[in-house]
TrEMBL record, chain A:
Protein name: ABC transporter ATP-binding protein
Domain of life: Bacteria
Localization of this protein: Cell membrane
InterPro entries: AAA+_ATPase (IPR003593), ABC_transporter-like_ATP-bd (IPR003439), ABC_transporter_ATP-binding (IPR050763), P-loop_NTPase (IPR027417)
Annotated source species: Microbispora corallina
TrEMBL record, chain B:
Alphabetized UniProt keyword annotations: Membrane, Transmembrane, Transmembrane helix
Organism: Microbispora corallina
Annotated TM spans: 26-46, 52-71, 92-118, 130-156, 168-192, 212-233, 277-296, 302-331, 343-364, 370-395, 416-436, 442-461, 504-528, 548-569
Hydrolase listed as a keyword: no
Coiled coil (residue ranges): none
Identification of the protein by name: ABC-2 type transport system permease protein
Length: 251, 575
C-alpha cells in the first residue's frame, strides 16, 4: 500500500548548520505517527519540507504517492496542515477564516457553511463569533489552525505541536477528534516533545536527533519494555551530564 | 547612565546581526545616499547661513514626517522589552534615546550637522567650540521630535476617527511641503523664509552664530521632549486594537470572491491601512488644490492620478504586511490569490479616484482627454505593480499578532519599506506615460491608449506576480519567517544556459530597444511629422521612398532581437 507520507532523503542546510540530514521516513496509511525530538532537532523543518512550505536542498516527499514539489495541487489537496507559529488572516473572525479558506479549497458554499459551523462548535470557538483572530489567545489560535487543517476533509493531517498552550479540556476534545479521524481511515503525523502524549495517542513513532532519525517504527518496537521517555533520554540525552543545579537560587 | 549605556550596547549588538546579507546592502545604499545629502548640507555652510538653516529645517521635517509616512521609525529596541524591569519612565526614555543615537540615520544626520562646526569655525574659536554641544543637542532634538510624533500618531491610530484625522493632517502637511512654492508666491516671499531660523532646527545655528541663549533653549527643549516621550511611552499598551467586529454577512461564494472579501475586510479593519488610505487621499487633494490659493485651478484635475500613485506606494509591501499568513496561499495552489488582491485593491481605490478626477476636472473644465487617459492607465498600472513589486522586492513584515505598541511599525526593516514606497512612486507614473503622451498629442485617442495599457499592465504584471509566487513561494515564506532573504535553490532558466547563449540573450534583451523604439517607432513618427535630418534618427536622413522602410526595418530588427532572446531562454520540456 502507498504510504500516506513518504519522506526520502530530505536535507536542509541553513548557512553552516545542517538542520535536516538525509531523513527517510514512511508513514503508513491509517497510522497515528508521532515525531519526537528535542527543541531544534529538526522536527519543524522536516515537516515544513514534507508539506511543501520549505524547499529542501535535496530529497523528496510524497503524499499518497504524489510528489509535493512536482504535483503540488494533487498532493496538497490531500493534506491538512497545522504549522507552528505562523500567522493567519488576522483581521478576520474564525468563521470568516474558515469560510474563505473553504471556498479557496474549492468547496461549495453550503458545505463550507455547514462544516465551519460544526468545527467552531466542536472546538468551542463559536462563543467568539465577533472576535478577530488577532485577538485570539494562543490556545484559540491552535484550535482555529486545527479547524483550517480539518476543513477540507483531508486524508492526511500534519500537525506541528498541536497541543502546545491548549488547555486540558480542549486537549481532550482534540484528542477525541484525532482518534476519530484515524479510526475513520485517516493518517496523522504529529510532532511533540511531550512523551506521555505521544505514548497515549500514537501507534508509530520516530525519534529525531540532530537532524537525523535516531529510531523509528511502531511504538512497541521503539520503546521496548521501557517507557518512551526513558528510551528517548537514552537515545538523545548526553551521557556524561547529570542534572545541574543553580546554586545561587537557594536562599 | 548605566541603563543608557547598556541599551546602546544592546542596539549595537542587534544591528551587527541585522546588517548581515541583504539588509546590510539596503542599509549600505541608504547610508551612501544619506552621506551624499549630508555632504550637500555641509556645503551649504559655505554658501550661507540662511541656506544652512533651511537645510536643517528639511532634515527636521525628514525626521518628523519620514517615519509617519512609512515604517514607523527605528524601533530595534522595543520599549516592551523592558516593561518587566520596572524602570521609571524617564530613565527608560533616556536609555532608549541613547540607543536611538546608535544607527545609520543618526550618524548620517550627525555628519550633516558638521555644517555647524564649519559655520562656527568661520566665525571664531568660541563659536566652533559651541558648535560641538550644539550638534549633539540638535541631533537629540531631531531624534526626540521623531519619536514623539510617531508616538502621537501611534496613539491616534488606536481609533478609527484618530486614524482618519491623522491621515488627513499628515497628507495635508506633506502636500503643503511639496507645493511650498505656492505659499512663497502667495506671500510674495523670495529667498529663504525667516521662519527657518525659529524652527527648532535653526536653534543650534543661532547658538553657533552668537545667540548663546539658543543653546539653553535647545537643552530645555530636549528635556521637555524627553518628558513628553516618557509620558507617551507609558500610554502605549500592547498591540493596537483592531477596529470593526465580524458583523458583516459573508456573501462570497467562489474562490475569487473569497480572496476579494478577505482583502477588503483586512483593509477596512486595519486602522494603519485606514490611516494610509486617508493620507493618500488627503495628499492628492491638497497637492492638486493648493495652487487654488494663487487662483490657478490647472492642477486640480490631477488630484485623482496623484491619489492613485500615493495609494499604490502605501500598498507596495502588500504581501509583506500579511506576514507568514502566506503559508495558507502556498497550501492551496491554484487559487486566484494575486487576481483577487488586484481586484480588491482596485475596487477600494478606483471609485475614489474616479469621483475625484471627474468632479475636479468638471470644476476646472479641463483637459478631459488627458485626465481620462491617465485614469485607467494609472489604475491598471498600479493594480498590476502592487502585487508584482511586493513579491519581487518583498520586505519581510512583522506578523500582525507579534507587533509591538507602535502600530505604524509593520516591519523591522523600515528603510526597506521606505525604499519600496519610493520605488512605487517612481514606477506607477511610468505606466501612465504612454497614455499621457498620446493624449497630449492626439487628444481623445489617448483614452484608448490609457485603457489599453491599463488592462495590459493589470493582466501582465498580475501574471508575472502569480508566476513568481508559484515558483518562489517557499522562499518568500522563508524570508517572511526569518527576516532574511532566502538563498534561492531555484535555478533560473538563465543560469542553466551556456555562456554563448547567455551572452546572445543579454545582447538581445539589452539592446533590442534601440532599433525598436528610437530608430523604429520614434523615427517613423518624426518622418510622419516631416521632421527630417534629426540628430541620430537614421530614417530621417533617407531619401523619401526609403524613410518608412528603414524605420520599419529597424523596428523589425528590434522585435527580432527580443524574439531571439525569448526563444533562447524559453522553457523547454525536460527530455
Amino acid at each position: 500500500m502507498t504510504p500516506a507520507l513518504d519522506i526520502s532523503g530530505l536535507t536542509k542546510r541553513f548557512g553552516d548548520t545542517l538542520a535536516v540530514d538525509d531523513i527517510h521516513l514512511g508513514v503508513p496509511q491509517g497510522s497515528f505517527f508521532g515525531l519526537v525530538g528535542q527543541n531544534g532537532a529538526g522536527k519543524t523543518t522536516t515537516l515544513s519540507m514534507a508539506v511543501g512550505l520549505l524547499r529542501p536542498d535535496g530529497g523528496s516527499a510524497r503524499i499518497f504517492g504524489e510528489d509535493v514539489w512536482s504535483a503540488p495541487e494533487r498532493a496538497k489537496a490531500m493534506v491538512g496542515v497545522l504549522p507552528d507559529g505562523l500567522a493567519m488572516p488576522e483581521r478576520l473572525t474564525g468563521r470568516e477564516v474558515l469560510t474563505y479558506l473553504g471556498l479557496l479549497r474549492g468547496l461549495s458554499r453550503d458545505v463550507v457553511t455547514r462544516r465551519a459551523e460544526e468545527l467552531l462548535s466542536v472546538l468551542e470557538l463559536d462563543g467568539a463569533d465577533g472576535t478577530l483572530v488577532i485577538e485570539y489567545s494562543t490556545g484559540m489560535r491552535k484550535k482555529i489552525g486545527l479547524a483550517t487543517a480539518l476543513l477540507h476533509a483531508p486524508r492526511l493531517l500534519v500537525l506541528d505541536e498541536p497541543f502546545e498552550a491548549v488547555d486540558p479540556v480542549s486537549a481532550a476534545t482534540i484528542k477525541t477528534i484525532l482518534r476519530g479521524f484515524v479510526a475513520g481511515g485517516g493518517s496523522i503525523v504529529l510532532s511533540s516533545h511531550v512523551m506521555a502524549l505521544v505514548e497515549q495517542l500514537c501507534d508509530h513513532v520516530a525519534v529525531i536527533d540532530k537532524g537525523a532519525v535516531a529510531a523509528a517504527g511502531t511504538l512497541d518496537e521503539v520503546r521496548g519494555a521501557r517507557s518512551l521517555e526513558d528510551t528517548f533520554v537514552e537515545l538523545v540525552g548526553d551521557q556524561d551530564t547529570g542534572v545541574k543545579e543553580l546554586s545561587w537560587l537557594s536562599h | 547612565m548605566a541603563v543608557a549605556l547598556t541599551m546602546a550596547q544592546m542596539k549595537l549588538a542587534v544591528l551587527r546581526h541585522a546588517f548581515r546579507g541583504q539588509r546590510g546592502q539596503t542599509a549600505g545604499v541608504g547610508a551612501v545616499l544619506g552621506v551624499l545629502l549630508a555632504a550637500g548640507t555641509v556645503y551649504l555652510a559655505f554658501a550661507g547661513p540662511d541656506l544652512l538653516a533651511a537645510g536643517y529645517a528639511v532634515w527636521l521635517l525628514g525626521w518628523v514626517l519620514g517615519p509617519v509616512f512609512m515604517g514607523g521609525g527605528d524601533e530595534t529596541l522595543r520599549p516592551e522589552y523592558f516593561s518587566l524591569l520596572g524602570l521609571p519612565p524617564r530613565r527608560l526614555a533616556a536609555g532608549l534615546l541613547a540607543a536611538a543615537f546608535v544607527g545609520v540615520a543618526p550618524l548620517v544626520s550627525l555628519s550633516a550637522l558638521l555644517g555647524l562646526l564649519v559655520a562656527g569655525a568661520r566665525l571664531g574659536v568660541a563659536n566652533a567650540l559651541v558648535a560641538v554641544p550644539a550638534m549633539v543637542l540638535q541631533l537629540a532634538v531631531f531624534v526626540l521630535l521623531s519619536k514623539v510624533s510617531v508616538a502621537l500618531v501611534g496613539l491616534a491610530v488606536r481609533s478609527r476617527v484618530g486614524a482618519i484625522a491623522s491621515g488627513l493632517l499628515n497628507g495635508a502637511i506633506l502636500a503643503a511641503l511639496g507645493q511650498i512654492w505656492v505659499f512663497f508666491w502667495a506671500f510674495g516671499q523670495t529667498g529663504v523664509p525667516a521662519a527657518v531660523w525659529y524652527l527648532p532646527s535653526g536653534w543650534a545655528l543661532l547658538a553657533v552664530r552668537g545667540d548663546w541663549w539658543a543653546l539653553a533653549a535647545l537643552a530645555v527643549l530636549v528635556l521637555l521632549l524627553l518628558g513628553a516621550w516618557a509620558a507617551l511611552l507609558g500610554r502605549r499598551a500592547g498591540a493596537t486594537r483592531p477596529s470593526g467586529r465580524g458583523r458583516r454577512p459573508i456573501t462570497a461564494a467562489t474562490a475569487h470572491g473569497a480572496v476579494v472579501a478577505k482583502e477588503l475586510r483586512t483593509w477596512s479593519r486595519d486602522l494603519v491601512r485606514n490611516h494610509q488610505m486617508t493620507f493618500a487621499l488627503s495628499y492628492g487633494v491638497c497637492f492638486a488644490a493648493s495652487p487654488l490659493i494663487l487662483g490657478w485651478n490647472g492642477m486640480l484635475p490631477f488630484a485623482g492620478p496623484i491619489f492613485i500613485v500615493m495609494a499604490a506606494a502605501m500598498a507596495s509591501n502588500l504581501y509583506g504586511t500579511d506576514g507568514t499568513a502566506l503559508w495558507l496561499t502556498l497550501m492551496t495552489p491554484g487559487t486566484p490569490d494575486v487576481r483577487g488582491r488586484q481586484l480588491a485593491w482596485l475596487s477600494a481605490q478606483a471609485p475614489v479616484a474616479v469621483v475625484l478626477t471627474v468632479a475636479f476636472t468638471a470644476f476646472s473644465g479641463g483637459p478631459w482627454p488627458l485626465v481620462l487617459a491617465l485614469l485607467p492607465a494609472l489604475l491598471g498600472g498600479a493594480a498590476g505593480l502592487v502585487p508584482l513589486v511586493s513579491v519581487y522586492a518583498l520586505v519581510p513584515g512583522t506578523d500582525p499578532h507579534r507587533r509591538a505598541g507602535n502600530p505604524l511599525r509593520t516591519s523591522e526593516d523600515d528603510g526597506g519599506l521606505t525604499g519600496l514606497a519610493y520605488l512605487m512612486l517612481a514606477l506607477v507614473p511610468v505606466t501612465g506615460a504612454p497614455a499621457a503622451l498620446a493624449a497630449i498629442r492626439y487628444g481623445w485617442a489617448g483614452v484608448a491608449v490609457g485603457a489599453g495599457t491599463g488592462v495590459l499592465c493589470y493582466w501582465g504584471f498580475g501574471l508575472l506576480a502569480e508566476r513568481r509566487l508559484r515558483t518562489h513561494g517557499p522562499e518568500l515564506l522563508d524570508t517572511m519567517r526569518t527576516g532574511r532573504k532566502a538563498r534561492t535553490t531555484v535555478k533560473s532558466r538563465f543560469d542553466q544556459l551556456s555562456t554563448t547563449r547567455r551572452t546572445i540573450a543579454w545582447w538581445c534583451f539589452g539592446f533590442g530597444a534601440i532599433p525598436l523604439v528610437p530608430q523604429g517607432v520614434i523615427a517613423a513618427v518624426f518622418v510622419a511629422d516631416g521632421m527630417l535630418r534629426h540628430t541620430w534618427f537614421l530614417a530621417t536622413y533617407m531619401p523619401p521612398g526609403l524613410r518608412y522602410p528603414v524605420a520599419g526595418a529597424f523596428a523589425a530588427l528590434g522585435l527580432a532581437m527580443y524574439g531571439t532572446g525569448v526563444w533562447i531562454v524559453r522553457p523547454r520540456p525536460a527530455r
